[in-house]
Amino acid sequence: MATADHHQVLEQLAALLEERKGADAGSSYVASLYKKGRAKIAQKVGEEGVEVALAAVGDDRDELINEMADLWFHSLVLLADANLTPADVLAELERRFGLSGLEEKARRAQD
Ligand SMILES: N=c1c2ncn([C@@H]3O[C@H](COP(=O)(O)OP(=O)(O)OP(=O)(O)O)[C@@H](O)[C@H]3O)c2ncn1[C@@H]1O[C@H](COP(=O)(O)O)[C@@H](O)[C@H]1O
Prior knowledge:
The protein is mostly helical. It has six helices and no strands. The mean pLDDT is 92. The chain binds phosphoribosyl ATP (PRT). Phosphoribosyl ATP binds next to α1, α2 and α4. This is Phosphoribosyl-ATP pyrophosphatase. InterPro entries: HisE, PRib-ATP_PPHydrolase-like.
């Protein structure tokens, strides 16, 4: 896939994950995750997060990319299971543009 198409990958994968809701768990890893349920999917996200942290400390570029891809993938499955999309998360990140992290933290402390 060409670099210019990279921004479409999240949407394409999300569409595929949506399709997998009707798939057979025996022939699709994603369908097998849906079948195991939200808690199992959430557990996978947690495990992949830990693996990302370990890879980062190990300072191995390829390992970090690999583990981050696993984390993003399982996070997308979790979003789909919750009937949310990458666009929902991207919209939230977009909303935060221009708002410094420290400023945001201070606002939260006031709530
Ligand atoms: N991007 C991915 C992707 N990344 C990682 N994985 C799978 O995630 C699993 C994670 O491996 P682990 O060792 O952590 O887990 P495990 O030991 O297999 O599973 P557990 O027993 O821990 O649950 C592996 O089986 C990987 O193959 C993925 N599986 C699917 N996709 C995408 O999802 C699409 C649909 O997949 P299927 O539903 O399987 O057709 C594929 O075409 C891909 O685009």
